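Worked example
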Amino acid sequence: MMKKRILTWLKPTGEQLHLGNLFGAIRPFVELTKQEKEADFFLFLANMHGLTVIHDATTLRNYSLTILKLYKALGVDTSRVYIYNPADIPGHAQLNWVLTCLTIMGTMERMHSYKDALAKGKAGEVSVGTFCYPILMASDILLYDANLVPVGKDQKQHVEYARDIAGKFNRQFGETFVLPEPFIPEGSATIIGLDGRKMSKSYNNYIGLLDDEKTLLKKVKQISTDMKTVEEPKNPDENHVYNIVKFFLTPEEDVALREKFLAGGYSYKEAKDYAFEKMWAYLKPLQERYYSISDAEIIDLLEKNAKVVGALAEQKMREVYKKVGLAL
């Protein structure tokens, strides 16, 4: 019996990752690998998806290497997790074409990414790659018969489409694909940014994992606060400083900080100084691990895993091509 397969991805769309990525996706994934000891884990670099928005080779390559180094520095166990580059494995593009031919336009027009573009009046600017993005994502998932796909809430629709198109294929050509289930890890969280909105590069309200000490201090000072005086009690759950730093605290430290806010007499300057101290204590050693990882180390890892994962993809595509009549 085949072991459970858990698959997710990392998309290289910026110079670095931020706290929202760390606590919303990476840390829950690392914890999942510790809990599911009998499962096989697949973690692919979604650089083919990144190509929909990044059209500079050097930029895409650098972003890809950065995100892979960060995942490794953050504790992803590369002895248990297959980290690979789909661009090294022809099956991704091959299955993408087969599924594209089975997908009607109306399905893609209902996808969030396209509807968002319509709402912004930018439908005419959307590339075909962006429009068909969910089909490539479905190919990435179905190629390896993934059972569980850890995602954020905004990506759930893509997994549901993968499940739908897999079911359609199975009904038309015979049982071929495992029907994947979206999985939103319990430990995932939405991290607010410096201005109180969801932390996002598009809002430029993020704290980056590679921000140096000076940059981090500057950003912590920019966290928005209300007009309460030092003496007034403050509700920590409504406080942006607390809602960012709480992820770096032990349970005991969390209780103590909440009590300080509720008691009054605790200034926002003190709170921000404390937040900076806790965050830098975490980020400094992380950055040291990151900078110790070479490009060559990452490339070697991708090449090694491409052989193993590529063999699985090739086997699946032989089956698919035979069933649809492309293998003569």
Q: What stands out?
A: The chain has two domains: 5-190+294-324, 213-289. Strands lie at 5-10, 40-45, 81-84, 148-150, 181-183.
